[in-house]
Amino acid sequence: MATKSTNQKAWFFVVPVIILVAFNALIPLMTVVNYSVQETFGNNIFFFEGVKWFEQVLHSERFHASLLRQLSFTGIILAIEIPLGIAIALAMPKKGFWVSVCLVLMALPLLIPWNVVGAMWNIFALPDIGLLGRIINGIGFDYNFTQNPTAAWFTTILMDVWHWTSLVVLLAYAGLSSIPDAYFQAAKIDGAGAWAVFRHIQLPKMKRVLTIAILLRFMDSFMIYTEPFVLTGGGPGNTTTFLSIDLVKIALGQFDLGPAAAMSLIYFLIVLLVCWVFYTLMMKDEAQ
Questions:
Q1: pLDDT at position 3, please?
Q2: Cα separation of 82 and 255, whole Å?
């Protein structure tokens, strides 16, 4: 029996991609690793410090506070955007002219650059001239996101929900659209209600796309920088100073390259570990 030969010419197309990834990811990463174990006093003179910066970051109350703010923000974002995105996807039409209209409207927030989103919401939420600020103050609430920590959190979360829920909607809608009509016809014959259809047909069939949606939203929200920085600058005080903003302050504001490099690696490992654990838990039953 003849054996099937493998065409190795495909590697000629893969090698440029590998080189590009190595240049854009591995080389900068190794630079960060190099800085994380050294100290410099300028003039390109470095001194080996070992794990000193890692120990300093891990025992730093500043890092713990930033990490807690980041985890809180990400948890709130996921708790709002995932159910909301699923609900909107379920409410969208499945056929006809309005499908295209809804998809275009859902995609619009995703097309706006991140810095523009922050600037838009900064103007929109200003207590004196912003529409949102004037409405909230007009109904009796003392709203000023530049001075009130609660208002700053509310505005930042509302901005992120407006900007990124569309991603969850589009992914969930794609998952719903891939379900064959035979499942719904069988459920109708059995007399299943809307909740039973969602629980036993739609939700299981959306498992893969929801896994992608949650992973993407976790990574994006956990590494968020531009939108809250433009909106609040990390304030008032350090109220909205998330890990990414604090990292930039250490690296560029204080020019502490060693601690900043160590913090960025810890940051990277946290994201990588959480994503791996979550993906493993979500997909553990797929092979069965």
A1: 58
A2: 38
* Cβ atoms 240, 228 nearer than 8 A: yes
C-beta separation of 205 from 174 below 8 A: no
β-strand partners of 48: 38
Closest CA to 240 of 160, 164, 143: 160
200 vs 210: CA distance, rounded Å: 15
* 137 residue type, one letter: N
* CA-angle at 80, arms to 129 and 236, nearest 5°: 40
Radius of gyration of the chain (CA): 24
Between CA 223 and CA 225 the distance in angstroms is 6
Q: Which two tokens stand for residue 235?
A: 């304030």
Q: Which residue has the tokens 């930042």?
A: 156
Q: Where are the beta strands (DSSP E) in the chain?
A: 38-40, 46-48
Q: Which domains are assigned to the chain? A: 17-283 (1.10.3720.10)
Backbone φ, ψ for residue 21 (5° rounding) = -65, -40
Instruction: Say how far apart CA 23 and CA 29 lie, in whole Å.
Output: 10
CB-count exposure of residue 82 (10 Å: 0-12, 13-18, 19+): middle
SS3 190: coil
Q: Reduce the DSSP state of residue 108 to 3 states and report it.
A: helix
pLDDT mean for each 10 residues of the chain (288 residues): 63 80 78 83 75 90 93 95 94 86 90 91 90 91 91 95 94 89 86 86 88 90 91 89 91 84 91 86 66
Bridge partners of 38, per DSSP, are 48
DSSP 198: I
Spacing of C-alpha 17 from chain mean position: 25
pLDDT of residue 125: 92
